[in-house]
Amino acid sequence: MEETVSSRNIRQGDDRLAPKTDENKKAGINDTERWASLIMGGAMVLRGLQSRSLQGVIMAIAGGGLAYHGTTSDQSLPDKLSEAAGLDQDIRVEKTVTINKPVEMLYSYWRNLENLPRFMSHLESIQTLDETRSHWKAKAPMNMSVEWDAEIVEDRPNQLIAWTAVADADVPNAGFVRFKPAPGDRGTEVKVVIEYSPPGGALTAAVAKLFGEEPEQQVGDALSKFKQLMEAGEIATVEGQSKGH
Amino acid sequence: MKAVCWHGKEDVRVDTVPDPTILNPRDAIIKVTSTAICGSDLHLYDGYIPTMQSGDILGHEFMGEVVELGKDVKNLKQGDRVVIPFTISCGGCFFCNRDLWSLCDNSNPNAWMAEKFYGHSPAGLYGYSHLLGGYAGGQAEYVRVPFADVGPIKVPEHLTDEQVLFLTDIFPTGYMAAENCDIQPDDTVAVWGCGPVGQFAIRSAQMMGAAQVLAIDRIPERLEMARKSGATVINYEEVDPGEALKEMTGGRGPDACIDAVGMEAHGTDVMGVIDTVKQATKLETGRPYALRQAIAACRKGGTVSVPGVYGGFIDHMPMGAVVNKALTLKSGQTHVQRYLKPLLDKISEGEIDPSFVITHRMSLDQAPEGYKTFRDKKDNCIKVVLQP
Ligand SMILES: NC(=O)c1ccc[n+]([C@@H]2O[C@H](COP(=O)([O-])OP(=O)(O)OC[C@H]3O[C@@H](n4cnc5c(N)ncnc54)[C@H](O)[C@@H]3O)[C@@H](O)[C@H]2O)c1
Ligand SMILES: [Zn+2]
Ligand SMILES: [Zn+2]
Fold first, then answer.
1. Can you list the positions of beta strands (E) in chain B?
2. Atom nearest to B306 CA in ligand 1
3. A31: CB partners within 8 A, 6+ apart
4. ipTM of the complex
5. pLDDT band at A24, cuts 50/70/90?
6. Which of B115-119, B265-269, B361-365 has the least mean pLDDT?
7. What would the pLDDT profile of B228-287 be if each residue is shown by its tens digit?
8. What φ, ψ does residue B74 adopt, rounded to 5°?
9. Where is region (Disordered) located (chain A) (predicted)?
10. Domain boundaries, chain B
11. How far away is chain B from the Cα of A127, in angstroms, using its nearest Cα?
């Protein structure tokens, strides 16, 4: 089960065992800049990015950017150890879809976080607590539930919503959704990036199930359901239809 | 209700299954009055389309009467007599808005599967594998129709089921195949395959003003039907179609070639044998025999239009001929919704009566026999219509 979580192609980590040189350090800073430009809409893909934490970058952007540079490339000792041992289990997924609707409509539907469980099938509910804070409840097997509080740390109307789980969450996670007008009359490009760090121990199995064995597919599925809801007003389904025996 | 279900290669049965119910606000339930077996169903019957599951309800050519409506369907009412396009399309996405209905972004619940196969997902289809949505089909007493507010077309009482049923698929399919040829007044169009799709491609090419239509098959009654439509026919078992086509076009080759055969083409030489073996061993998912001939025969700068269905990969695609003869290749599942109204008008005005292709009328219970007869081309079978 732990195997499943630590999963796949998400991290391009390759030189993790190599000693940290100045060059690596520089790469860390560049990564942060590239992260920032990804979030802001400059860069297209995150492939190859090694910057450790989306959460950190989101916080940095919210807090004014540059201040964060110093800290990203400076890993804590436990981080270094777990990376060296190949235990780094961050899962990061990026997916983009074009939706044939105006930015305003898509942004405002998403900004009401309580709508998210309609198209993110792994979520049971989201309850907004105030302007920026919300309580998330995810479906988990064996009557286990995973819950956490999240905070919107950056909110640019019709452009960007970025959130992160609060510090003591069982499953540290963060994400952002970016809305950008598509060329011509093609609607809006919606990019979602989600990152989470599955914990060890008892929760691991539940989380593996929870976030699926194919995180890419799960985020892709959520986005295509979002698109269906916005464009077609309903989510295509065959669940509950007749079948022979 | 009774429904025709797929249970494996060459195994279709009439099962009793629960009646369909409304699952989404834009759904309708239709009581099926007529449904047909399509050449595309034969690819399922012969086991060439992946992701079928035992018990899947078949059928994508069907019409009937509205019996129940989801709360968002405002343009239909109970009792309306409707024809249903085989492409399931939302009406609101980029592709639907551009009249490219078979490419709808929002109707395939298993889009991720199709994305793995094709890069992107086409529209969901009725009764045509889980890769294309896993929707229950209409060879049944009742069927659920998604996006019923944009798909179905009401048909006037004075036209019989048999006259309008083929608006669901094969008439628009033959028509789009011909339209893709961009036919000019002096053009010769060659059509491989004189099955139902080929027959409508022939008639459509004539409607669009082709000077000459040449039709290729080996089944006598199918060639005879094509001849009656005004085509000049070639039996590919008697003459080499490549040579014959050159002779009949002053050496130039047909201006446009239509492959209305698809992935189960029958081959007469060694390539045909190799393809059959490869397909049986799944090294190749189609036997592109007619397609290769069409590409080789087509005049320089001409168009090859492919309504014939291919599911996956083919070998020995003569890309060299495509490039060096500067051919245009056009294909696609039919954008059925685009053609419903204009072709219904043609039927209404008496320009064509599509029922000419029907050779067999059976009850739903006889579907297993219908599949076999149609596949084996026994008893002069060209098109089977089932009445639930
Ligand atoms: N694009 C679409 O949306 C669409 C819609 C409907 C059907 N189709 C496809 O169109 C094709 C034809 O459908 P149909 O209902 O007419 O099927 P069919 O099986 O009745 O007809 C195929 C015909 O091709 C002939 N044939 C076989 N090998 C040949 C060869 N080498 N040269 C010439 N003719 C050959 C057969 O004898 C037969 O008459 C199928 O592949 C079907 O899946 C596509
Ligand atoms: Zn068909
Ligand atoms: Zn659509």
1. 2-6, 12-16, 28-37, 56-57, 61-69, 81-84, 87-88, 124-125, 142-145, 153-154, 188-192, 212-217, 232-235, 256-259, 303-306, 328-331, 360-363, 384-387
2. 1
3. A49, A50, A51, A72
4. 0.91
5. very low
6. B265-269
7. 999 999 999 999 999 999 999 999 999 999 999 998 888 777 777 777 777 777 777 778
8. -105, -15
9. 1-29
10. 2-169+334-387, 171-331
11. 26
C-alpha B176 to ligand 1 mean position (Å): 15
How many angstroms does the Cα of residue B38 sit away from the middle of ligand 1? 9
Q: pLDDT by residue (tens digit) across A75-108?
A: 443 444 344 333 445 677 889 999 999 999 999 9
> Is the CB of B122 within 6 Å of ligand 1?
no
B180 lines ligand 1 (CB under 6 A): no
pLDDT attached to residue B388: 95
Q: Is B57 on the interface with A (CB under 8 A)?
A: yes
Full DSSP string of B136-164? --SSBSEEEETTTTTS-EE--TTS-HHHH
Q: What is the CATH number of domain B171-331?
A: 3.40.50.720
Q: Does B28 touch chain A (CB under 8 A)?
A: no
Q: Which amino acid is at B227?
A: R
Closest to A240 in 3D by CA, of B27, B33, B86: B27
For the whole model, what pTM was predicted? 0.88
What is the spatial distance between Cα A72 and Cα A76, in angstroms, rounded to a whole number?
A: 10
Map residue B375 onto helix, strand or coil. helix
Q: Report the residue count for chain A.
A: 245
pLDDT over 70 (residue A56): no
Ligand 1 lined by B125 (C-beta under 6 Å): no
- Rounded to whole angstroms, the Cα distance separating B198 from B217 reads 10
Identify whether the C-beta of residue A206 lies closer than 8 Å to the C-beta of residue A140.
yes
User: In sequence order, which residues have a C-beta less than 8 Å from that of residue B132 and are 6 or more positions away?
Assistant: B108, B110, B114, B122, B123, B124, B125
Domain ranges of chain A: 3-232
Interface check for A95 against chain B (CB to CB < 8 A): the answer is no
- Best probe of the B interface among A214, A227, A234, by most B CBs < 10 A, is A234
- B310-362 residue pLDDT tens: 988 888 899 999 999 999 999 999 999 999 999 999 999 999 999 999 999 99
Over residues B52-71, the pLDDT tens digits come to 999 999 999 999 999 999 99
Q: Do A231 and B92 touch (CB under 8 A)?
A: yes
Q: pLDDT value at position A60?
A: 61
Question: In chain B, which residues have their Cβ closer than 8 Å to the Cβ of A236?
Answer: 24, 90, 106-109, 124, 133, 146
Topology of the domain covering B2-169+334-387: Quinone Oxidoreductase; Chain A, domain 1 (3.90.180)
Question: Please, what sign has the CA dihedral across residues B92, B95, B100, B105?
Answer: negative
Please give the class, per CATH, of domain A3-232: alpha beta
